[in-house]
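cache lookup: miss for this entity combination. No prior model stored, computing from scratch. Input as submitted by user K.M.:
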Amino acid sequence: MSATLSAPARRGDEDGTPDASRSGRKPRAPREKLMSRTAAMIVMVVSCFYFLLPVWWLFVSSTKSREQFGSTNGFLLADFNLFQNIGDLFAYNDGIYLRWMLNSVLYAGAGALIGTLISAMAGYALAKYRFPGRELVFNVVLGGVLVPATALALPLFLIFSQVGATNTFWSVFLPSLVNPFGVYLARIYASASVPDELLEASRLDGSGEVRTFFTIARKLMTPALVTIFLFQFVAIWNNFFLPLIMLRDESLFPVTLGLYTWNSQVNQIPEIRTYVIIGAFVSIIPLVIAFLSLQRFWQSGLGSGSVK
Amino acid sequence: MIRKNSMRIAALGVLSALALTGCASNSGSGSSSAAADCAPADGKVELSFTSWIPGIDKVVDLWNEKNPDIQVTVQTGPNGNGGTYKNFFNQLEAGNAPDLGQIEYDALPNFRVQDGLENIAACDGVLDSKDQFIDWTWNQVTFGEDDAVYAVPQDTGPMAMYYRKDLFEKAGIPVPTTWEEYAAAAETIRAQGGYITNFPQNDVNWFAGLVWQAGGQWFSNTDDAWKVTLDSPESTKVADYWQGLIGDGLVSKVPAWTDEWNNAYNTGSDWTWISAVWGANSISTGAPDTSGNWAVAPMPQWNAGENAAGNWGGSSTAVLKGSKHPYEASKFALWLNTDPEALTALNQEANLYPATKDGLTLPVLADGVPFYGDQAIYDVFADASGEVNPDFTWGPTMTQTYADVADGFGGVLGGSGTLTEALETGQEKTISALEAQSIPVAK
């Protein structure tokens, strides 16, 4: 979230320069240029500040001992206890927090990986093969984009109850694989970036359809796939409602649900408050890493999807 | 604060989802209450128990060691209104509810009305255990019905007054024993720059505890119809009193359970807190700099010489509808909530204050607490526990009622309206909520 900010900000700034000089009349151009640049900078700085402030608060609070947390200013550092706090967090309740993080990584990582593959194959098929009902299928998928995942949680719970599979790893993992928006992106991108001629050529050379997809189309679609992966990773990581409804066993919780559970116990056991805050801080680190390392792909993927 | 608010929003989402799904399955007030047969099963039994009490798995382990034939698995989740109640209703709908669930007293009527509780009166030892429990808790789990027990009381929250002994002594203010003296002390304290206490917007159940002490109640259930009395004379009396303190600027108005609130106590800006027994731990963690300076006295009284007390919080262990093993489940619930070893463990793990009469004299509750100047504070609460009006009844729509009254309270703290008006609005909205669920209302 915070990581994405700097990238568009930089781009917006570069774009602003040629735009202003092109549209402005000649005598007034330099002044307008300066003004619009300053205005853009101010907007960027303010919004950057606005988005980073909570993260800063979270970081600062994570470094404080319980006594200082209540008695010192929330935005200023006091004694640095971050590593002590993290140690306590990992030790509390037999290290259940680490288990939750692992679960989240598993749900989000494996879920997004398989989900991306499914989306890519579906999108590719919808873009490159002609078959009756193709548009109908695509429109149904598009309709799926409009249905919020939250609205499906309860029906899913009742369905999983029928087969006795609630409160299992699969009850959260399987629904997470489905991503209609990913199918949409993959179709748009595949039709734009995978030339039919190339597919024809590979067919002539004797490559099977599956092999063509994995060796040629997949490589051409990589930027879109990274975008889909990131989207889905974040969506699964932040998905809270489905695990809340499905899971009862603490050892299956993803980190979001675990932290929420702790937070709801704060009134009863005030000590947990510290763990909630440090836990929240630690839980955003994997997301930040994912964004920073895949940022470049993310941008180009988004851009190419939107132009078409 | 941000975090807490988002939790509220999440809770609200959960609630509205509940409203959407709840209507379909709900058919008026509960079904027949005749106690079903309750026979032990042959062979080994496995029970599931959902509770959000931290560390309760360790207490359940004690049971599992001693009872190889009745093994209990603990399931957990967020606190009741945070999602677990909603989950219970979903599971009841799907037919896979746990055998046992933790339900707070103020949520029990909702489960009763939606027929989510098993009547365990016929189970071995349940009716006989009545005398072990504090009178008012037993009424909470029977709803006054004959031959019916729907849950086993677990813990309670008798109320008293936490106060800064050092500050009161220094200022030469006698510890208030009546609400009149409390208001007088509030003025003296304000003149010295402090506040006597804080008025929380969202702790409506705290306010209900004060009404409870004043002898009032918000709901009653007669002839299968609910009577809503948020605007009863006792309720209005309490509201007028606090309205006076708020209007004169004698109480602080920070949101409870926030850093700001902790800080008000930690820096000595707020001098007292009328709160439940479990609040002892909230102060000691929230205001660590004031260690040793606090003491506990009984709640101020409406009439000098009385000893009335209110109650804030507490929960029960209920056997949920559809459990195949009510006999074993109630056996476990009785052990969990009456056995001295279990009660001691619950107190040590999660600060639970027992609902049994014998539990109040547990050795673990006898010692002085250093944070409170080595005062044996639990003696005060044990006395208060016996003075709680046994006839208080919660309604089936408490979450909604709390939310509506809290909205009104928020307006008052912001400077518009009065507490009485907030209660009147809550009254109206509660009646329409009951009617919307086709629950009969007595006018």
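stored under new cache key. The two ends of chain B are 40 Å apart (CA to CA).
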